[in-house]
Amino acid sequence: MMARKMKMLCWILFTCYGPCLAWATQSTELQKGEASTMALIENEELQIPLSEKGLSGPVPQGLSLNAETPSAKKQAQPIRNENGALDEPCLPADSLVIQWLSATTMQLRWHAPQSGTYRVYRTDLPNHAVPPTAPDWVLISTQTTGLPATMTFVDLTATSEYRNYVVIHECTAPENNNCANAMLVGDGVHYYSTLGATTDGPSTACSGNNLQNDIWFKYVATCDIFSIRLCERANNWDAMVTVYNGWNCPAANSEIECDDDGCYAPFSPNLGARVTVQGVAGQQYLIRVGGFFGATGTGYMKIATGADNDECGESRLIQALAGQTYLYPFTNVCANTDGPPESFSSGFPQLRPITGDLWYELKSFACGVCTLKTCGSNFDTQIAVYDSNLCPEVQLTAHATNDDACGVSSRLAFRVDYQRHYLIRVGGYYGSAGSGTLTVVMPTPPANDLCSDAQIVGLGQYSFSTINACTDGPVQGPWGPAMHDVWFETSVALCSFLEVDVCDVNFDTWIEVYEGSNCLNLGAPIASNDDTVGCPNSDGSMVRFYPTSSGPYLIRVGGFGPLQIGTGVLNISQGFIAYSNESCTSTQSLTYGTHAIRNNCASNDGEPVTCGQIYNDLWFTISPPLNSTTTVSLCGSESDTRLAVYYSILSPACDNLSLVVCGDNECGDDPEVSFGRGGIALGTYLVRVGGASVFEEGLLQLNIELQ
What we know:
Layout (H helix, E strand, L loop, with lengths): L6 E2 L3 E2 L6 E2 L41 E4 L12 E2 L5 E2 L6 E9 L2 E8 L3 E8 L14 E8 L3 E7 L8 E7 L12 E3 L2 E6 L17 E10 L4 E6 L8 E7 L11 E4 L12 E6 L5 E9 L5 E8 L10 E6 L3 E7 L22 E12 L2 E6 L7 E6 L13 E4 L7 E6 L4 E9 L5 E7 L13 E2 L3 E6 L17 E8 L5 E10 L3 E7 L11 E3 L12 E4 L7 E7 L7 E10 L11 E2 L3 E6 L16 E8 L5 E6 L7 E8 L9 E7 L7 E6 L6 E8 L7 E8 L1
Parallel strand pairs: 1-12, 13-15, 22-24, 31-33, 40-42
Antiparallel strand pairs: 2-3, 4-7, 5-6, 7-8, 8-11, 9-10, 9-12, 14-21, 15-20, 16-19, 16-21, 17-18, 17-20, 23-30, 24-29, 25-28, 25-30, 26-27, 26-29, 32-39, 33-38, 34-37, 34-39, 35-36, 35-38, 41-48, 42-47, 43-46, 43-48, 44-45, 44-47
């Protein structure tokens, strides 16, 4: 059976602006199912049998032919442009890897050393010792990269007996490669390509010599203000734009506008450029488009009257930090109107449309009240704010509007939240146009807004405000807890309890206490409260907790729900724990049932028992009836606990104790014991409870049941 052959042509060479091919063949055969690291050597042919030695069916997925062979690469020679300057050579594609995925699928992967267009051709003619002529090749793919990259193409029709592939880097210079050949353009959208372009423009004040591989355009302004934008998604390479007065090729640093990376996601990959030019209608201008540090690519250039943020879809980004003020000079001369009319609360019921509108997208890095104003503008302005970054074609209702708050200028305030987006629309009243400055004043947060900036406090009272505070701690559900929170850090004395309240407040509060000061890993709060009955104000909150260490402890105060903000006073007080039953001689009498008991900082009074020493112990007396069985447990306590039950027939009881039973770990880390009382009515039963070590203390669940 005749072996089916697939010939992979992989080396492409340029020494001029046109494509130049290098043909590669290899005589070595690769058997089906074999992995290969063979290199494709120039002037040899590679044969891949589909059916050989009784094998049939598709080649196993993943069979890879690696053509990465340094010895086969040829170095292209540098060329000189019209001015005699040395240009970077047009480099060929290299490191071709061909992967036979199935009987009908081939994958080509190669390294593209330069930006530009790479064209994939194939031919199904039988073997040739030299490349077939141009008419025998079929263009099957055109791919573009804006940066050096690894590129991939999959051919789903690899079924012929012979198949040859070639990848060509297209480097023909554009017609407007040189300033002297600048292309005349007008208002509108223009496709462009810098692939194969060279550099003949001078250095600029905004980019030095970084603007390279440039192309040129001539433009006659149709308005005193115009903009140039390379912001559409198709501009996915690192483009720069520069504008010069007149049509004479410019001198160094003579530009009137220049930009790099002025666009931003989601409208572009933040690699495009945009400028607004305050010129003169009828004046001639040169536009220069090039790449940062030699990047090349293709895209669309939009030239329009008005500023570069004239359209909502090309709004100017404001990344607004807390406590900062931003000033944006603007002019709406020559601006178009692309937003809807809005209703203004200025004493007039009719619609007062915004005309000649400009757009800004505010990304807030603060919470609270943001102020916008155009006060001092030389024309009648209006402002509208939309509560998202969706253009008003989708979102038709303004979040806030204003007209004539400061003379015929505008001012408004609206709430912002952290990392939320808002659209700001600035324009004129009924066709008014002019210039002014948009001022954006971001809210200033409290000094202890963030957990990491918690205010260090001790005992006493501390005024606080959650106005302009963000939510820094964990949120559980849509209503909190503790939204728009502020933070405090405190330490306590051992053997005490701490009481924290925000009773004196003017909003609905929530309070939480966390052990430790690791804001990145708070864990669950050890105490929390909302609307305690301990505060005269029903919106206040109070917690009491028993420290297991001296601290630090974090106190979080916020509002119950996203609308609850205000001011108040934090009060921290401390009480020391005193026990009346820390010894056998001063016991506390208990009835049957469950009792919540703390043993924090209790003394160690008793001797070790058979199940171990009992630390931080407390003593209780019980009186079980004759001929009964009593069960005593500490199951469910906070710490690792132990207990012992004693009997004494004498009085006082401590003079002659007899151990009845002791317990440890009968229910997890806690004890549970049972004992019976015989027919002797004399004597006293004592229950001793505590921790399994000196560090085990906290809330104990003492349960006594009669059976």
